[in-house]
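pipeline/complex-builder :: batch 7 item 3
reading input block
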Amino acid sequence: MTENEKRFDRKRERGGTTPRYYEVFARKSSADPLTHVGSVEAPNDDLAQVRAWFVYDQHAWKEMCVVPTDAIVTVTEHGKSAKIKMN
Amino acid sequence: MATRLKQDDPRELALQERIKAGFKLEDETEMTPRYRDVLVNTMHIAADLEVMTLPDYSPAIKNSPNLEAKIAVASACQDELGHAQVMYRLLEDFGYDTHQFLFEREAAEFRTFQLLEFPHRDYIETVVSMCIGDRAGYITTTDLEDNCSFGPYARSLRKVNFEETFHVGHGERWTRFFWNQSPASRQRVQEAFDFYFPLAAAWFGVPDSMKKRTDQLAYKIRGASNDEMRQKWLTQVVPFCEELGIRIPARFDEETGKFRLDYEPPVYLDEEKRVWHFDRRITWEEQFAIWKRGSVFKVPAIRRLQLEVWGKELW
């Protein structure tokens, strides 16, 4: 490994071996509904916020939030994981 | 793969029928093995292509002519990285490990296209690439957004395509600027088109007449064929070039009512001199071998990304 080689701390950046996902929601203006815009992988809430802001910066959102994917309880899709995945 | 079903397997045909009727898939459990293969393969290539734009475009952050252009190119790089993230995130649902995939995979195994395998030598090459190359990419990704039968992928491309329009627009504006700036810059624009036009035309792949596998269309992963997308690209590129007076080997054919290339691919490219020999046809086998091998710049460019040996050189 050279001095310049990227060092990647899997525990810090990925929270270990099992990835954790967050769904990203945003609205453009007060009148718009809060909409699912995408998803990011992050080991904690702080990094999830940063990654959501970095990746989904296509608009100057009025409001944006992230929700851990495993916190989502589906109503129409019995027995399956959330299908909102993207947008 | 032992579980792979034949294309004429009743389950495969049933899925194709449902898709033809407008059915959108939302989850892996709804897929047949063959559908899954075709979809994952498509997303895999698209993700690699997004990543491959970074070594191409990042030098332009340094050699951009003014602050506004610098910001635009830096944003474009951030966009492309974001697009890769979106696609890798989707691929993780199919068992991919993004970190492994991005940083630990052999550089030679990245699935890239020849268009992205030559470093831009100045800002003019970057904007010409944005003008015709990003446009080619945009046509393929809008086709996916409009048609892809896998809902999550189609939806995720809304953001991607929204951002790509800025790259194409930036390329067009600055191509116009350099074409009109001076005789020397005009010549550089022409040289950039001479080299990049056939590469961008090849973005859409082999002619339909050669295509053996039509799985992407049968499962409606995408909606338009190679030739249809190439035609759409020509419809935009040829009038743009004609308006400015940029010479390209393509024109509108009055007889067929369609745009067409003046040469019959594949033709020989002198990669070292970056010169096309339109009168020297090569076989498709030779062309596939060239695409598979990649340019001499491909592996070092990806290694650079993987090792992050940017250091002081970046800015």
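note: The interface with chain B takes residues 2, 4-6, 8, 10, 13-14, 19, 21, 37-41, 51, 54-58, 80-81, 83, 85-87 of chain A (CB under 8 Å).
queue -> next item
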